[in-house]
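Input record, target 12 of the design panel.
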């Protein structure tokens, strides 16, 4: 065995960047999860607002106002949460990495023994185990990278917090606006207005099916299952919102 092969030819960050360059459709694969979950949240919450307003028999203007207000406020809130979550994850990685560098410098024998224990648990033993330990501990960066991955089970994501937040907000607003399209571009006449919620249901279903197919790529599940699951959750949220709106309308009307 060539023990030098145990040294990574690329750093974890370089490997992550290599995989990140891959694209699915027109999406950077590294950020597709943000687009998917932002889109699902946007479509479902906005459609729930539309369904609740329809259940309460509110006017078109009210539906549009509530829908757009929800779209911007919730989208911004979700993107801010995503930003701080990603930033905290990166900061935590860097903090632990600095601790590992300090331990390598000041607690060398203890850290050497930890490397020995890690590779002994993988089946290395005897002289080969000692050679492995020697190769890894000869390079401080490789040593620390190994400890981060094997001991702490931490890898650094190259996702920039502002990019994940931006993708989340973009997806939330774009996909979340679909349930409102029929209301924003409504024609005239009672027959058209009566069908607005039906059009909204159809458009939302198409959007959720598209997002569900992308979700299956992220989770590596069956595409049809991903579509079915997303449509089911969206339909359930809409049903509950419609039911609550209908009940509240009847309750207030009875007062």
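The sequence produced for target 12 reads:
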């Amino acid at each position: 065995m060539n023990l030098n092969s145990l040294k990574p030819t690329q750093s974890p960050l370089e490997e992550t960047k290599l995989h990140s360059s891959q694209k699915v459709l027109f999406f950077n694969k590294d950020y597709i999860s943000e687009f998917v979950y932002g889109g699902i949240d946007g479509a479902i919450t906005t459609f729930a607002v539309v369904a609740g307003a329809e259940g309460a028999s509110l006017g078109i203007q009210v539906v549009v106002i509530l829908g757009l207000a929800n779209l911007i406020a919730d989208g911004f809130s979700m993107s801010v949460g995503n930003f701080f979550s990603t930033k905290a994850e990166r900061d935590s990685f860097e903090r632990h990495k600095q601790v590992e560098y300090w331990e390598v410098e000041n607690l060398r024998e203890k850290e050497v023994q930890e490397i020995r224990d890690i590779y002994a648990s993988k089946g290395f033993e005897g002289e080969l185990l000692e050679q492995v330990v020697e190769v890894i501990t000869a390079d401080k960066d490789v040593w620390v990278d190994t400890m981060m991955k094997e001991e702490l089970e931490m890898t650094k994501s190259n996702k920039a917090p502002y990019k994940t937040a931006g993708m989340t907000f973009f997806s939330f607003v774009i996909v979340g606006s679909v349930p409102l399209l029929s209301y924003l571009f409504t024609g005239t006449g009672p027959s058209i207005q009566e069908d607005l919620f039906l059009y909204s249901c159809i458009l939302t279903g198409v959007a959720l099916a598209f997002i569900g197919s992308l979700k299956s790529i992220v989770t590596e599940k069956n595409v049809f299952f991903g579509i079915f699951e997303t449509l089911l959750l969206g339909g359930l949220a809409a049903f509950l919102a419609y039911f609550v709106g209908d009940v509240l309308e009847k309750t207030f009307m009875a007062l």
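The CA atoms of residues 56 and 245 lie 4 Å apart.
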